[in-house]
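Our preliminary data section would be incomplete without showing what the modeling component actually yields. Below, a chain of 709 amino acids is followed by its predicted structure, encoded as tokens that our downstream tools consume directly.
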Amino acid sequence: MLRSLCFLWFYFSGATLCLVAPVIGDEPRKVSDVTEQEDPNLWLEDVSGEKQLAWVKEHNSVTQSHFEGQQSFNELNEDLLRILNSDERIPFVSKAGNYYYNFWRDRQHERGIWRRTTLTEYRKEHPDWEIVLDLDALAKEENENWVWDGAKILRPTYDLALIGLSRGGADASVTREFDMNTKSFVEGGFARAEAKGDLGWIDRDTVFVYTDFGSGTLTSSGYPRIAKLWRRGTTLEQAEVVYEGTPEDMYIAAFHDDSPGFERNFISRTLAFYSDELYLRKDSGELVKVDAPNSANKSVFHQHLLLELREPWTVDDKTFSAGSLLVSNFEDFMHGQRQLTVLFEPTENSSLASYSPTQDFILLNVLEDVKNRIYVLKHQEGQWRREPLMGAPAIGTVSVSAVDADHSNAFWLTSSGYLTPTTLFYGEIGDNLQQLKQLTPQFDATGLKVSQQFATSQDGTRVPYFMVASADLKYDGSNPTLLYGYGGFEISLTPGYSASVGRAWLSQGGVYVVANIRGGGEYGPRWHQAALKANRLRAYEDFAAVAQDLIGRQVTSPQHLGIQGGSNGGLLVGNMIALYPSLFSAAVCQVPLLDMRRYHLLLAGASWMAEYGDPDSPGEWEFIKTYSPYQNIRKDTRYPAVLFTTSTRDDRVHPGHARKMMALMEAQGHDVSYYENIEGGHGGAANNKQRAYMQALAYSFLRERLFHR
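Predicted structure:
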């Protein structure tokens, strides 16, 4: 099965335009042309400079010395590390040939092991695993801080793999060919040097490669602009160019669909995060465009073309609504026919969460008021028939995916909730579900209750949120409450089991709240598009409405209310600090975007302009500056206490955002703390030890500020 690059979360793009004002001489000056006089913290954007890292270490030391001297912090850190290293976790697997593969980290394997087993073994409580690659041993042997970045196993022989490795967890990675029989890297085999991009099989002697080929071969967002076909025995320089995009594109890639009987090659040209072109590459090298809207997510599986619409589309006088899932025969569509069938159409309270084809069916996952419902679609006698998946859990977050879509109707189903440990099921469509694994409860949920509430935003929109609290909660405004959100890139926040939240917050008597604000995907494209660009403030109005609802219902009060968010959620937290400071007492701002005046110039920032806008485009800075926290912080305003965390190795969201905001607020005399992990990439941590430490910092900070006041 092949899906386009539109499905790569947090990979987005755009072009830089010029704003005519103010003017220096005869040349227009861009808003982003900031001087050190205008921004005295500009120097902190040098990621690995000696002076800059000294600043990082100095601020890390202050935070570390404060918390590491507390017994409660050390106990929590050890407790969270035990959870992350526990053998009780579910080892999720993916099938390749006769084996089921899993990547696993624990106390003995800090960087992790890639291992495999059979389905018979996997059904057992303690399967017998065969180690294929020990990443700790490799990192030690090569003196590198390798982090696992996935593997592609060659079909149908399954004897070779292309393994991705990242230094410190960065998006940039290397790829190496690996022999599955000898369990060693292939000497002189296919290899890609460190860069953003990838390498993928066509057959055992041919691959597609899209990467940094040298000067001028990347887009303005820092992603591949050229895709090549590379044959074994030739140099990378001799590889054949199959597509060359423009610098203004976001990402160029090439894929091989290896489904038996449906082998095809595709080129993906991603123009921006919500816009891409998909081309079928014929054996002659000719490219034929899949003539569907650029805004539609395109997927090809066997004889089917599936289109997930983000905007309304009119075909032969019939208009299909945004959020719909359509299907057509791929070959017929490529020859100009437009016989489209609606597999799903959204309603006011429902949206498409995902879909997964099997050999003979399509599994449809629908969100109804942020609750999952699973349906089975079957093509019979020229029609698609839909019925509920028998035995699927009725509560909690449910996900479903094919085990081996090309050869069977088997599927994995996982169920999880805030208080319900994750459970893994195995099923065949038409048969009963079999429970394979269930996570042992990681915290005592006795007496806790989950409820869904709705707040009313400033423009009258009803905004759902989930609350986890004691069933005997006293509504007196005294409850320490943590409010979490994201609100961007059509990402939905659904209930899920989090041992760290349970151990570090709920078991201590805290209330946990997740806000499903606009900008996310909880109600499909319309929910996301309602908070794009000039409408971005709606996401923050929604989040403030949830906070005000919690305060109004006396669940909590400003002195006991804290917030947390990362990445785009870090931008959310930054704006809540800047725009609604009186609502909160504490904020954890993780791997954040904060300087929206320069975000498009930092690392992958240019690729997010479809979401936020272009600061250098005429008129757009006027609305962007209203939600740029770095420009909206004032010395004479009282802000909640803030903990900023980021990673030096984050090559997606520049650590300069957090560094500069910390420096600014510190200079103004505000209550701020800082911690920057040297490894970790955009996830913030490269291994369980680092992850536990950063979680312990966040929860210790929140508990210190919100409890006992």
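The two ends are 55 Å apart (CA to CA). Residues 50-68 form the longest helix (19 residues). Preliminary results of this kind motivate Aim 1 of the renewal.
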